[in-house]
Recover the amino acids of this structure.
């Protein structure tokens, strides 16, 4: 999950079309796109740090935050009625991955 989030953060520096379409589709202000880079990078760092020190409570806490981020992304997509491929593949896929990572981290506690 940390690698996926770090990759997502790096791609978001100069977003490819599928990321731009997603953010524009939910009417997320372009002036704030930079904040998502920081959020994703910090989440990746938190997961790496938690794993490095072997503390499942850290990785579980970060995983809850990541899952929350993607749940709010789902809500944004639904509110904007932007339910195209980006929603079904990217948003729900990342939510499912986040939920699976949270389940693994919680089980390790």
């Amino acid at each position: 999950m940390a690698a996926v989030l770090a990759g997502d953060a790096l791609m978001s520096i100069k977003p490819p079309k599928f990321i731009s379409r997603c953010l524009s589709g939910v009417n997320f202000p372009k002036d704030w796109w930079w904040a998502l880079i920081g959020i994703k990078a910090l989440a990746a760092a938190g997961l790496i740090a938690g794993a490095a020190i072997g503390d499942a409570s850290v990785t579980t806490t970060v995983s809850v935050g990541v899952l929350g981020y993607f749940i709010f992304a789902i809500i944004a997509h639904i509110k904007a009625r932007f339910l195209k491929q980006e929603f079904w593949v990217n948003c729900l896929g990342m939510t499912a991955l986040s939920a699976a990572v949270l389940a693994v981290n919680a089980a390790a506690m």
Residues 1-108 form one domain. The chain has one domain: 1-108.
